[in-house]
Amino acid sequence: MKKNNLIMGYVFLAPWIIYFMVFLMYPFYLSFESSFLETNILLPENTKFVGLSNWISVVTDFMFWKSLFNVLFNQVIFVFLSFFIGLGLALLLNEIKFMASFFRTIMFIPVITSITVAMVIFDFISGPSGPIQSSMINAHIISEPIFWKFEQWLPMPVIAVFSAWKWFGVQMIIFLGGIASINRSLFEAADIDGASWWRKTRKITLPMIMPQIIFVMTMNIINGLQMFIEVFMNFDLSGGPYQSALTPVLYLYQVGFEKMQMGEASTIGLMLAAVIYLLTMMQLKITSKED
């Protein structure tokens, strides 16, 4: 009986195992192999082994480290901004009883909006002639319109604000699910003791939704460091006049498909994967200590 159950288990796992091997492990193997080769997809017959040349080239490449700095700069703003907006709205909506579903749906609309459409709308709103800058000029916060795409330090913070607005709804729903799963008797006992809303939030809600917090932070790091569409729509492959919006994935695409250096592009991808792994492990280590 146990043997039959084991066989059935592997049968049900087979589709995922096949997917994992064919679409994840095999491409990873090809990328790792390509990182030691000088190869051009248009001239595959000229492929030759170059050893660690691609790795040395990427490690000493200023543009790779600049792209990595850019995306880390962006993610510091995005992760904290989207986290606090998502958590704050989840706590607020958890207290709302009247038309709660309506407000949750409204908050989730940016998530289901096409990222292309959302970026076009945001570009208009945040542009020099958009309502945000017009209001800031009228309030004497700024003296003249700002062309943020042509500034050296503004592209990544502005895109981080856009990303936070676009994706905070996902985090809000995850946090709402975590809050809903907390045993109500804990709050009832806290009410009997006369605990305030803030004390209940700090001592009960936040510790109890720590698994959701860890999951959200981890996924933000993994997905955020692979940012591509947001910057590509605004700056193409150049990354802006100062390369201030250049990201590792954008640079990888540039090296692989513009310069046709697939070996170096594979190395950039593997370096990015290593950075994501290290940052994710660091984040999990820090949050596990706090827990």
From TrEMBL:
- Pfam families referenced in this protein's UniProt entry, alphabetically: BPD_transp_1 (PF00528)
Output the GO biological process annotations, alphabetical, semicolon-separated: transmembrane transport
Name the principal localization, coarsely classed: membrane
| InterPro entries from the UniProt entry | MetI-like, MetI-like_sf, UgpAE/MalFG_permease
What subcellular compartments does it reside in?
Cell membrane
Q: Where are the transmembrane segments?
A: 7-29, 72-93, 105-125, 164-183, 204-229, 260-279
The reply to whether Ribosomal protein figures as a keyword in the UniProt entry is: no
Mode of membrane association: Multi-pass membrane protein
Residue ranges of every copy of the ABC transmembrane type-1 domain listed in the record: 68-283
Enumerate the Gene3D superfamilies for this protein: MetI-like (1.10.3720.10)
Q: Which UniProt keywords apply?
A: Cell membrane, Membrane, Transmembrane, Transmembrane helix, Transport
GO cellular component, as recorded? plasma membrane
Q: Name the family the entry cites.
A: Belongs to the binding-protein-dependent transport system permease family.
> Could you identify this protein by its name?
Sugar ABC transporter permease
The taxonomic lineage of its organism, from the top, reads: Bacteria, Pseudomonadati, Pseudomonadota, Gammaproteobacteria, Vibrionales
